[in-house]
Amino acid sequence: MIAPEKRKQPKHPYLVRSLRTLGLGLVLSVILHILLDASLSGFNLSATFEMIKTYPIPFLLGILVLMLVYLFLISLIGNVWASSTIFVGTSIVVAFANNQKFLERGEPLYPQEFEMITQWRFMLSMLSTWLVVLLFLGIAVIIAIAWILDRYSRKISAKYYGRDFKYWDQKTLIIRAAGLVFSGVLLFSLTNFQSSDNWLRKAYNIDAQWKDVDPKESYQQYGFVGGLIYSATANIMDKPVNYTESHIKDITEKYSKLADQINATRKNKPMDDVNIVYVMSESFSDPTRLHGVTTSSDPIPETRKIMEKYPSGYSLSQGYGGGTANIEFEALTGLSMYNINPQITSPYQMFLYQKENFPSLVSSLKQNNYETIAIHPFKPSFYRRTDVYNALEFNKFISRDEMKHTETLDDSEYISDASAFQETLDQLKANKTSTFIHLVTMQNHMTYWDKYINTIGVEGIPEKNKQTVESYIQGIKYSDDALKDFVTELDDMKEKTMVVFWGDHLPSVFPEEIVNQNTERTMHETPLFMYANFDLPKKDYGTISPIYFVPKMLELTDSKVSPYYALLTEMSKEVQGLEKNVLINGENQTIIEDQLSPKAKEYLEDYKLIEYDLVSGKGYSKPTLFKNK
After folding, report:
1. Whole-model pTM?
2. Last residue of a domain, one of 205, 232, 259
3. Which of 232, 266, 284 is the last residue of a domain?
4. Range of the domain at 114
5. Which residues does residue 607 pair with via DSSP β-bridges, in sequence order?
6. What is the pLDDT of the chain when averaged over all its residues?
7. Do 38 and 110 fall into the same domain?
8. Same-domain status, 287 and 309
9. Model pLDDT for residues 264-315, shown as the tens digit of each residue
10. Do residues 546 and 502 make contact, with C-beta atoms less than 8 angstroms apart?
């Protein structure tokens, strides 16, 4: 018999194997880049390929970045199939999450949201059961395929290369070390992407003009990878050309004099021993204001009664369908997202958690010996609130883990507003000193299907969206009921107490047909009122930004202002609504930037310099601007 001919072995097996591995990485990178880009359009492949055709260079550069990630993984782990499984599995999960966020909020997945993986149970609870099953099934299939391939790879390797490569033999370790250093250095260099000298930025700039107005456009035009890198490396604010210590000193002196003028007519120190309660109500809105929506009964009659009796209006939210922490940031600090670069999509997660003793309403009240308490009936790590509340100088943070009242409603998984209000009342009664409580409710957080026994019908909504919308409206009806009981309890309290209540944003339950019938401003307006168990003058605020809540409170209670709140007091008279897509002048009219008054432009310029000084600059203004008079 003639012996079978031996297969000819390659002369340079390590080189051939490395090239084949890189070839696999290239194929996977192309496929996964297309998948990630397709997740921006509901996995519409024709739209995805049109984007690639229009912007080919960003597409190729995105593949290069993914290749570097793959090379880093394979060099670090050493196992082709384990590395490929992590690479593919992670990309699929990211594409899935990105698609879901686009469906819910019309926004891509921003860099800081990747840390939400630590809240994976909560994130999965927001999805329907079949989507969760499909996701895990897909990942299981990938792992199974990788396991099978890994099982037989040694046999294939022995047959083709004439050897079984070991992850730890000398040549393999040298190749892995070289790959790790090469990919690691290039990936680390991307942290400097905003620099005009960055190699990748230069390459992208051949075909890309980065959007400074809406970061999601960068994703949709230059691909998921390009948009992600651009957002991840953005500056908080661009340094104003006239930012100097002497100029900031001039501004602080200017508003110190203005504060003296305002305080000459006011008799009380800030709030004058009045308990203050901030209630930022999750997704609380007035659906009867939306064109195209008709409800069988008024879901918020008690809120409406309070708004008719006390100072009230509407809060201009910078978010739609989400962004709770950003509205909270504005209300507590008086700093607007308007001036912050659009790529900074969450100040809490992207810079505030790193700060110490950051000026805010909290620190201002602590100057007058207030007890300051934050209450949020959810996980303390969400939006890094534990670190952020420390930076803002809260004395105490009560999360769901410390709450005594944790009751829920019907089939909802979230702690009810009634329970959150009772927790707030307990704290007010327990403290003998003046108290500030910042309550962020959770009851009306998405999801909304199959939550409640709905008692309010809705018309004008497509049938497929009806149950979700009705469930949401039932939730705010429960909130309205709880609010009535809360105010009744406060009416009977001996201690002076004031409540600033507002909805953080509208939910994303309303279909496109409804959104298109309403203005951008309407879709960002939520009910606002300032209640007190003592006499307050009735005022109609129209629509104002959360940055003005404090100066309005100080005005209502005839309280003296710090130079910072003097600036906000005067600025509110010229521009009372200040968000990226909506500007409202002092007459409650929607305007564009060119229509701002000269005074408004002057205040906004000073305000921008102060905001830069606090979030990105040297903090020259802190010793003077925030000192109570």
Report:
1. 0.85
2. 232
3. 232
4. 13-232
5. none
6. 89
7. yes
8. yes
9. 999 888 777 899 999 999 999 999 999 999 999 999 999 999 999 999 999 9
10. yes
Does 267 lie in the same domain as 220? no
CATH number for the domain spanning 464: value is 3.40.720.10
Whether 508 and 567 map to the same domain: the answer is yes
How many C-beta atoms surround the C-beta of residue 291 within 10 A? 11
- Asked whether the beta carbons of 406 and 419 are under 8 A apart, the reply is yes
Tens digits of residue pLDDT in 237-248: 999 999 999 999
Q: What is the DSSP string of 52-116?
A: HHHSHHHHHHHHHHHHHHHHHHHHHH--HHHHHHHHHHHHHHHHHHHHHHHHHHS----GGGGGG
Residue 428's φ and ψ, nearest 5 degrees, are -60, -40
3-state percent breakdown (helix, strand, coil) of the chain, nearest 5: 55, 10, 35
Q: Do 219 and 334 lie in a common domain?
A: no
pLDDT (average), residues 240-265: 96
Task: Please check the confidence at residue 202 and state whether its pLDDT lies above 70.
Answer: yes
Are 285 and 462 in contact by the 8 Å Cβ rule? The answer is no
Residue 241 falls inside a structural domain: no
Distance CA 585, CA 583 (A): 7
Question: Do residues 307 and 179 both lie within one domain?
Answer: no
Q: Is 134 within the bounds of a domain?
A: yes
Q: Flag whether pLDDT at 163 surpasses 60.
A: no
pLDDT value of residue 3: 44
pLDDT of residue 203: 92
How many structural domains is the chain composed of?
A: 2
Q: Based on the domain organization, do 188 and 108 belong to the same domain?
A: yes
Q: Is 226 within a domain?
A: yes
Sign of the dihedral through C-alpha 319, 320, 323, 324: positive
pLDDT tens track for 109-150? 888 777 666 555 655 555 556 666 776 777 777 777 766 666
Q: Looking at the structure, do residues 347 and 494 belong to the same domain, yes or no?
A: yes
Contact 441, 417 (CB under 8 A): yes
DSSP string computed for 382-408: GGGHHHHHHHTT-SEEEETTT-S----
Instruction: Tell me the per-residue pLDDT of 519-563, one tens digit each, with 9 for 90 and over.
Output: 999 999 999 999 999 999 999 999 999 999 999 999 999 999 999
pLDDT for position 126: 54
Give the separation between CA 186 and CA 64, rounded to whole angstroms.
11
